[in-house]
Amino acid sequence: MIDRYLTVTALTRYIKRKLDMDKHLRTVWLKGEISNFKHHNRGHMYMTIKDQQTRIQAVMFAGNNRFLKFMPENGMQVLIKGEVSVFEAAGQYQLYIQSMEPDGIGQLYLAYEQLKNKLEKQGYFNEEHKKALPTYPKHIGVITSPTGAAVRDIITTIKRRYPIVQITLIPALVQGPTASKSISRAIDIANKQSVYDVLIVGRGGGSIEELWSFNEEVVVNAIFHSNIPVISAVGHETDTTLSDFVADLRAPTPTGAAELAVPSWHQLLEKTTALKNQLNQLLNHQLTQYRTVLNRLKNSYAFRYPEQLIRQKEQELDKTIEQLTRLSAQSSQQAEESFIQLQNRLRRCFPERQLEHAVNDYVRINDHFQKTMSISMKEKKETLGIIIDKLMLLNPLGVLKRGFSVTYTKDNQIIKKSEQVEPNDQISVRISDALLKCKVLSKEEEDR
């Protein structure tokens, strides 16, 4: 009877085998919304796929999700291919996702927008990181496919515009799963060689899938960290990749990149000719001015009548000498007068004279001080005598000298009333020159 009962494990395994054997559940195409998304540190993705009425647990293992071009997020509508089975440890059925793409938006476009937002927040596209291109480069590195039309357009345009520059093709794959690594490796090689003044990185036009290698983060990083200025030349004018945003300069086409990389020798020749003509005009103008000055000097009075000019200058020299002599005499007289004034001031300020004046001042001040001190001492002595007399009148000892005395109890209390003592009490009597020890023989009270 007990053999009828199954264990939970046996039942779960039975249900799992049933589900695994159902061909309709081996390949399931499912549409729904992601919620409770979790990306485990081992690479697996766990989530819930739901619609308006129900939900199912789902997992996408690292071996499958490494091919995703976008990062799943909560609330995203997705289209899923997978299979349904049972997770035995929890006893629940769940969806094992094999592939996934956004619903209503292309997978590549979503990945493009996600990576663009990420790099923009990290500052990859800021103008402050852009490097200036050299005006007259000597060596240009071209990173592209050696068999594509882009390389021919670039080389032809550069040779036509600026034939003296050296061009080196650094071959790289520009399409396919390994293209991004090939492009980034070519950029690193160019930087290590340190012989290039500018790099052109690009290819011809194509679909977003064909241009996708220029949207890969490894290529964007290589361009951002390049020490050599980079011109991005990907696709046609309407094509825009992340390499265009991070590059130091974006060209609409490979031919446009070649035109931006080098100047036109025709334009340089025209500019040089214009500068030459401008220089000739400037030199002719200055030469004309110098000739005018020279002719004016040749026709001047000094060159036409030198003897008259010399006689005139001699007269001016005589007048100048007379004026100088007169001014010199005046200056000498003023200096002598100033010297005499200073000498008189020095005599007045001679040290012996100053010392004599100082001694006289000292004697006068000292006499005045002695007289003042004598008068002040006399006044103070008189004042002190008056105060002493007043004090003597108030001094108890003075009263005692006149025959009075002060009586104390044995506790040294002044006796003021008869009730303070009794017969046979010991008392003390203070007179002017002694202290008497006495004894009360009797006490007689008086009415006053």
Features:
5-stranded parallel beta sheet; 48% helix; alpha/beta; single chain; 4 domains; OB fold (Dihydrolipoamide Acetyltransferase, E2P); Rossmann fold; 448 residues
Would you list the SSEs in sequence order as H and E? HHEEEHEEHEHEHEHEHEHHHHHHEEE
Task: Please count the helical segments.
Answer: 14
Q: Could you say what the CATH architecture of the largest domain is? A: 3-Layer(aba) Sandwich
Q: Distance between the terminal alpha carbons, to the nearest Å?
A: 143 Å
Rounded Rg: 61 Å
Structural class: alpha/beta
Gross morphology is flat
Name of the CATH class of the largest domain: Alpha Beta
The major β-sheet equals: 5 strands, mixed, barrel
Work out the helicity level. Answer: 40-55%
Mean pLDDT: 86
The name of the CATH topology of the largest domain is Rossmann fold
| Spatial strand arrangement across the major sheet | 1-2-3-5-4
